[in-house]
Task: inverse folding
């Protein structure tokens, strides 16, 4: 049977396809064999030019050759290599060339080169001097621009490493650290030792590792590293899946420092200055990601425990974790220098109620995350009603949210939400918190006044500290105390009843029907609307203002007794000073014999007959807490 034309065409195409495949295979084989026999010495000039173009200065390679004639894993020899420092490296760093290497012998994998993977399998160096530098903006002389890669990282193919007569120097202007160390790698393993400084504090540096001689695939490589000094130190001991695979490791880490900011120069997590710190944790690194477990440590008087993950993606860092503390002192979050500065402010301006805590998020512009914090017991330098703390912290692209925040008191709770928003420029603080089931005496123990206390604070304002933001804020502050007691002498004086205010039995108590405070705040100035104290002996009202920026009081009290008073102080009683140190200024007529005679005359003449009535505490409470 004769073949049809379509059958003939199909057979012809199959023959052409078979021949083409054979030709391609032969060409690939020839190319592969050519690579196996490639005279690498011809690339000496190309390598010099490309390296020179990259750093902007001439790179020289004294010699480049290969051992043997044919191999898919050829061994190359290089000699007398000089790589100058890029122009950006300042002379003040005190560094020499980026690299000067007497001799290099290395074996490379041609299949790995073709596939684009890590190709160096064995490496021998002798007479190497490496000087590394990182600038304050993150630029480095070994990688160029600041690293913005995601969490991926390729694994090294290196199986054998030998280093003789070599040194490594490192200068880091971003973290203010440096070291100079001798490096050796041979049959006894990896050894590095030298000296350096972290934030100007002297340290020694050391590292140890197992031998790197034909290291088998899949076998963990043990290592240890330590930075030791009186002011700061850190250790890390563990294993890597392959020699020097620093992007993938697991181990146990410890650290100590005079404050957390100094320790952060080693661990680079963007942490603030604090009181002295000691810390330990189990860590796992996978690419640019870290997992931290069994965290345990101490900052000043505070203890901390918990776990966290640190992920780096597209130039941003995300930290998620849980921190618990049996005891926590907010004052431990300030260094000695910070405490001295705060003390100097107190000496200059006096005691202040509103904290001067910094809320500028500029250092955290590339940091996001979520943190849960629980403290069983809060520690304070003096007396305070605040006893415990629970909060959820969320940081998302320069917006910090604490929601919920809950502080346990001796009685009751203070809870709500705080936000620092820095997305439109400088930080803006917004506070919305409620006080519930509290007791008045816990906040003003020296007055002897007590009662059921509730309240709410709603304020928002711009500023780089809490004090500055509140000092520019608008909103309201509301406090209501009811069904309480206070010393009878105090109650009488609030009604401007001079005689009973000094003659009533010191142990006698009066009823506190209600304390009503509502402050309307605009531009950081709080004005009472109203401020009222209603007791079984008197009704007192206050007007004026409180400047929240400096906490200065410009108030005037006017009180009326609820029963006939023999000597009554007329007019208003000025209150000056500050919130923490009020100054009740006794009017002149109460300080002189003439003034007292006038009061007696008014009493005899019946001019002081106006008496106060009970306030509608329930209605005032509803209006104040609206």
Result:
């Amino acid at each position: 049977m004769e073949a049809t034309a379509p059958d003939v065409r199909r057979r012809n195409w199959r023959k052409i396809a078979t021949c083409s495949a054979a030709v391609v295979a032969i060409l690939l084989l020839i190319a592969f064999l050519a690579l196996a026999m490639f005279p690498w010495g011809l690339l000496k000039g190309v390598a010099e030019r490309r390296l020179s173009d990259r750093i902007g200065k001439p790179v020289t390679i004294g010699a480049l050759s290969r051992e043997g004639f044919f191999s898919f894993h050829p061994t190359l020899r290089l000699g007398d290599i000089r790589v100058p420092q890029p122009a950006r490296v300042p002379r003040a760093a005190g560094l020499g060339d980026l690299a000067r290497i007497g001799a290099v012998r290395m074996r490379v994998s041609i299949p790995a080169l073709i596939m684009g993977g890590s190709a160096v399998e064995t490496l021998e160096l002798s007479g190497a001097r490496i000087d590394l530098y990182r600038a304050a903006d993150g630029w480095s002389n070994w990688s160029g621009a600041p690293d913005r890669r995601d969490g991926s990282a390729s694994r090294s193919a290196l199986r054998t490493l030998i280093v003789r007569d070599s040194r490594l120097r490192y200068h880091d202007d971003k973290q203010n650290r440096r070291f100079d160390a001798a490096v050796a790698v041979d049959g006894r393993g990896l050894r590095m030792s030298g000296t350096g400084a972290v934030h100007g504090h002297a340290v020694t540096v050391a590292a140890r590792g197992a031998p790197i001689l034909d290291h088998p695939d899949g076998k963990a490589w043990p290592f240890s590293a330590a930075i030791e000094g009186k002011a700061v130190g850190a250790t890390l001991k563990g294993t890597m899946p392959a020699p020097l695979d620093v992007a993938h490791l697991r181990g146990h880490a410890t650290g100590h420092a005079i404050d957390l900011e100094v320790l952060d120069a080693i661990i680079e997590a963007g942490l603030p200055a604090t009181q002295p710190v000691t810390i330990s944790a189990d860590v796992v690194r996978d690419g640019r990601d870290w997992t931290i477990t069994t965290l345990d440590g101490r900052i000043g008087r505070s203890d901390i425990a918990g776990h966290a993950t640190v992920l780096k993606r597209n130039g941003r860092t995300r930290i998620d974790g849980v921190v618990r503390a049996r005891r926590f002192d907010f004052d431990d979050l300030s260094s000695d220098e910070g405490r001295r500065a705060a003390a100097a402010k107190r000496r200059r301006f006096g005691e202040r109620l509103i904290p001067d805590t910094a809320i500028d998020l500029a250092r955290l512009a590339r940091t996001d995350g979520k943190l849960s914090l629980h403290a069983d017991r809060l520690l304070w330098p003096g007396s305070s009603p605040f006893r415990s703390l629970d909060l959820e912290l969320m940081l998302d692209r320069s917006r910090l949210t604490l929601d919920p925040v809950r502080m346990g008191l001796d009685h009751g709770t203070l809870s709500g939400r705080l936000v620092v928003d820095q997305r439109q420029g400088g930080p803006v603080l917004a506070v919305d918190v409620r006080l519930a089931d509290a007791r008045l005496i816990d906040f003003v123990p020296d007055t002897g006044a007590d009662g059921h206390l509730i309240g709410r604070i709603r304020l928002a304002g711009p500023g780089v500290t809490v004090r500055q933001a509140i000092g520019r804020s608008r909103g309201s502050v509301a406090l209501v105390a009811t069904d309480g007691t206070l010393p009878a002498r105090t109650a009488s004086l609030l009604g401007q009843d001079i005689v009973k205010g000094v003659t009533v039995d010191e142990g006698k108590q009066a009823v506190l029907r209600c304390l009503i405070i509502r402050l309307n705040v605009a531009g950081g100035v709080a004005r009472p609307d109203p401020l009222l104290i209603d007791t079984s002996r008197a009704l007192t009202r206050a007007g004026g203002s409180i400047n929240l920026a400096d906490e200065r009081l410009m108030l005037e009290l006017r009180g009326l007794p609820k029963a006939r008073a023999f000597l009554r102080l007329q007019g208003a009683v000025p209150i000056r000073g500050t919130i923490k140190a009020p100054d009740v200024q006794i009017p002149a007529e109460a300080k002189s014999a003439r003034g007292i005679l006038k009061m007696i005359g008014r009493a005899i003449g019946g001019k002081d007959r106006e008496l106060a009535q009970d306030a509608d505490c329930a209605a005032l409470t509803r209006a104040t807490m609206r």
About this structure: Residues 5-36 form the longest helix (32 residues). Residues 308 and 321 are 4 Å apart (CA to CA).
